[in-house]
Amino acid sequence: MSNKLNSKLSVPVLISIILHGIIIVILGYRFMQDSDANFGSINGNSIDAIMVDPSVLNEQYQRQLQSQINQQSAHNQRQEQINSQTDEFLQKQFEQQEQLKQLEKERQELAEKQRLEQIAANEAAKEAERAIKEAEKAVQEAKERAAREAERIAQEAKEKAEKEAKERAEKEAKEKAEKEAKERAEKEAKERAEKEAKERAEKEAKERAEKEAKEKAEKEAKEKAAKEAAEKAAKEKAARARAEQAKRDKELNQLLGGLTSGSSNSSSGTPNRRGVSNGELGKYISLVQTAIRNNFNNPNGLYSGKNCILEIQIAPDGLLLNVNAKGGDDALCREALTATKLAVIPKPTSALYNQVKTMTIDFQPK
Question: CB of 130 within 8 A of CB of 22?
């Protein structure tokens, strides 16, 4: 931009210098003609005299000398005036150049107008035609230089833009790759953490299951041992109960008037044809309830005032075939069923069996 501006300024400055030089030459030429004319008019007069008076000659010499002095003084004044005008002209020219530079900087639109004015002045002065052509050539070269400079700047800008775009693309690709790598690493870390957590949870669940299975097995083993011990104790208790039952059967047979197997009618295999009274049935049911109560646990009278309806099926020898709860308190029924299964049911008489082989008992703990 500065080269282009200097090229534009150099043309008007050059034209101005040429025009001012032409004016100075013309002024100097006219001054020389005036001097020669005056000098011829003064010194060119001849005196046609044969005798010359010295005083007259001296006076004439003095006038001529004074005229030369005046002429020289006038010439010096004119020269000083010309020099002053030249200095003033040069000063104005310098000021005009500075003004042209300033105006060219401030308003580029005046450049075209000044160029047209300078072309018109060059047409008026044929001597400036060559300078104008050179100026035009310089302008053309300046344009070409400006075009080349603009092309170079455009190329540099293009290369710079391409380089910046490439760097930006590489940077964005790098950032994208880093972001994707980071996301992938986070995803893999998350999946690995989830997998580890899952494996740890499965391991803990397996260990917990094994522990629970082990505890369950130990518990079952303890329960089995306790059950076996309870069954053993129940068997022992049942053996004792059977012994006591045999004793009670004997007493019951005596009480029922010899209707058991120990009587003569029973030993002959003839069944007792007498009917069974309600009293005998009630006594037998009372014995069954007593057998159940003997195996029932009622801590601190927990089940007092509650009842459970039991349906009991027995064999002819008193062996328990089945027992069900038909109603009543659920907790009491659970304990009553357990106690019934452990109880030793007394053997009923053959005459009584048909009535008690499936009996319903309203069990109420004491």
Answer: no
User: What mean pLDDT is reported for the chain?
Assistant: 78
Q: Is the pLDDT of residue 232 over 90?
A: no
The whole-number pLDDT of residue 93 equals 79
Answer yes or no: are the C-beta atoms of 328 and 309 closer than 8 Å.
yes
**Poorest-pLDDT segment among 78-92, 97-111, 216-230:** 216-230
Pull the structure tokens for residue 234.
């129940």
- The per-residue pLDDT for 314 is 94
